[in-house]
Amino acid sequence: MTDDEDENESEGEALAAFERLGLTTYEAKVFIGLHRIGSGTARDVSQVVDVPRSQVYGVAERLEERGLLEVQQSNPIRYRPVSTDEARELLRDRFEREQDRAFEYVETVKRESTGEETQEDIWTVRGRDQVDDRTVDILSQADERIVFGTRLPELVTDTIERTLTERAAAGVTVVVVSRTPAVRDRFADLDVVTVENLPAQRTDDQRSGRIVIADDDSILLSVVGNEGSETAIWSSGSLFASVLIQLLEASDELQLE
Prior knowledge:
Elements: H1 3-20, H2 25-37, E1 40-41, H3 42-48, H4 53-66, E2 69-72, E3 78-81, H5 84-112, E4 123-126, H6 128-140, E5 145-150, H7 158-169, E6 173-177, H8 181-185, E7 193-196, E8 208-214, E9 218-224, E10 230-236, H9 239-250
Parallel strand pairs: 5-6, 6-7
Antiparallel strand pairs: 1-3, 2-3, 4-10, 5-8, 8-9, 9-10
């Protein structure tokens, strides 16, 4: 790739980023162009960026309203961009205001939402990293007890191991269950974590992934596909979660006594 191609690609990425921050393509081009030349007239700007001279005036006016450039009332009119630090702060403030406005409305709608029917919150998450993140989230919110089980050592990430250890140190009862020695060995030297070997009453399901139980009302169950992809269902703070946990612990699938 030539230097010109590198520059064009970098500029394209910068333009796309400015657009995500709320600027139009022309606004982003004019702002970048002014930083390239320092200051200049509409004609100067149109010569360095792909914006018609007739459009530069309106675009510059909008940028001035945003606080992103200054106008010198001369003949012809000259424009100068604010510093990159100032522009960054202005765009950050605007983003945060818009974010607050959007989520305040969502919170209002959520509070106003009423109805006689209820729906249990049962969610599906796909992908190893996404399941890892949801597992850590459920573990981190446990206040009383945790059961974590898997047959696959690779599903015990460093973050999950650290979270289990931290919750145990905080007084949460933590039990790790697995038929796999490599999984049990990771916690064998930790006094704060109880390690259990599930009774070998049946052949391991080669699709089973992991099970996470927290405080008797949060659960995650996952399966692993032939190609190694992981899919999980999870529920937290729901009747579904509580009932499923009771069923699992009453069955032969999860014996902790």
